[in-house]
Write a structure and sequence with these properties.
- The protein is mainly beta and 235 residues long.
- The chain has one domain: Mitochondrial biogenesis AIM24 (Double-stranded beta-helix), CATH 3.60.160.10.
- It is 12% helix and 49% strand.
- It contains four helices and 21 strands.
- The strands form five sheets. A six-stranded antiparallel sheet has the order 5-6-3-10-13-8, with no helix packed on it. Strands 11-12-9-16-19-14 form a six-stranded antiparallel sheet. Strands 1-2-7-4 form a four-stranded antiparallel sheet, with no helix packed on it.
- About 7% of the residues have low confidence.
Length: 235
């Protein structure tokens, strides 16, 4: 498999696959493909795996793409302005990602759900109760809003991140939620009530803007109905 990530803030990943090679992707992520690629929606891993993906915020079915007769070319893109990154998964080293981060992967990759172990993470984590665990042996492509910042945390090294801004982390990284201290900071700081605490060792990927903040920034410029439902106005 050969690939090329093209673009800046609206990226695509273009993948060249060999005959009979299979790539699977999140439904709706296809941008274009050559005529010799067949696609088929499948519930990879069976009903329980599909249900787990649905709970994690993904689709029940994933789409498989297979090149027939010759090399094929296929391209995938995310649903919002942001960054695409390839991650190489090796046996025994899993990678945990926020919901909606999975874009596409080789057939040798497994996607499953990862339950939060701490009560605070369940109720207050920006990614909710369920995250996605990527395992297997091969390449996976993830996508998230904004630009990426990557950190390699040493053993017991801690970083605190705005809740919802963490794209993914090695399974060796501890993840928990911490309440912001101080009533004045909570009321007037504008940073929310909770921070995500990540403790090494392991690799961490952070996004510069999450989808919720992007939606909030665009909201004042979206059209909305006037009184009497007689039309729309802007601003």
């Amino acid at each position: 498999m050969k690939y090329d990530i093209i673009g800046n803030n609206l990226q695509l990943v273009k993948i060249e696959i060999e005959p009979n090679e299979i790539i699977f992707a999140e439904a709706g992520s296809l941008v274009y493909m050559t005529n010799n690629i067949n696609m088929e929606a499948k519930m990879r891993g069976g009903f329980l795996s599909g249900l787990g993906r649905k709970l994690a915020g993904e689709t029940l079915f994933l789409t498989e793409f297979k090149s027939v007769g010759d090399k094929g070319l296929i391209a995938f893109g995310g649903r919002a302005p942001g960054t695409i990154k390839k991650i190489n998964i090796t046996p025994g080293i899993d990678f945990i990602v926020q919901k909606d981060a999975f874009l596409c992967a080789e057939d040798s990759i497994d996607i499953s759900i990862a339950f939060q172990k701490r009560l605070g993470s369940i109720f207050f984590g920006g990614e909710g109760f369920i995250l996605e665990k990527i395992s297997g042996n091969g390449n996976v492509f993830i996508h998230a809003c904004g630009d990426f910042v990557e950190l390699d945390l040493k053993t017991d090294e801690i970083i605190k991140v705005d809740t919802g801004s963490v794209v993914g982390w090695d399974s060796s990284v501890s993840y928990s939620i911490e309440r912001v201290k101080g009533i004045k900071t909570i009321l007037f700081g504008g940073e929310g009530l909770f921070l995500t605490t990540l403790k090494g060792p392991g690799h961490v990927i952070i996004q510069s803007m999450d989808l919720g903040n992007l939606a909030s920034a665009l909201m004042p410029f979206m059209p909305h109905q006037t009184s009497g439902n007689q039309g729309f106005k802007f601003g």
